[in-house]
Amino acid sequence: xxxxxxxxxxxxxxxxxxxxxxxxxxxxxxxxxxxxxxxxxxxxxxxxxxxxxxxxxxxxxxxxxxxxxxxxxxxxxxxxxxxxxxxxxxxxxxxxxxxxxxxxxxxxxxxxxxxxxxxxxxxxxxxxxxxxxxxxxxxxxxxxxxxxxxxxxxxxxxxxxxxxxxxxxxxxxxxxxxxxxxxxxxxxx
Length: 189
Description:
Elements: H1 2-6, E1 10-32, E2 38-56, E3 59-74, E4 79-94, E5 96-97, E6 103-124, E7 131-152, H2 155-162, H3 173-177
Antiparallel strand pairs: 1-5, 1-7, 2-3, 3-4, 6-7
């Protein structure tokens, strides 16, 4: 790259670009204790997922929360209830950095959920008093910032491709506006 920087046929351009990318699949294990001793699990779903992301070196940290709702029966399957438990999490997504040295301090962290948190399994534990819930989710993250790219300039292209064009004889914008385009609609001719 150092030879190209001194070469008059190369130019450095400062632009915004994705300078780091990462993806992470996560599994979490939660224990929820209902007020009654559960007999069976009738359903489990995740709602109200919110998160925020920030850069941490060559990684992106995602901090968020969601509610786990467990529908269960108790008293030998004669009654049901829904227990809601709010859970917080922190996930660090390692990034493959394409450009170690970003120009300037302005960066944009983009994180999105590839797979929203969902229940893999909800079971009554061995002591019969608690419910264990396995949850999976997946994130993708990017760092966008200013960086330099190096491009090759073809010095002969301008001479060869444009040498026969007389730029003074080109149609002006005013002349283009004066062109009658209705002559194509003449159905008699």
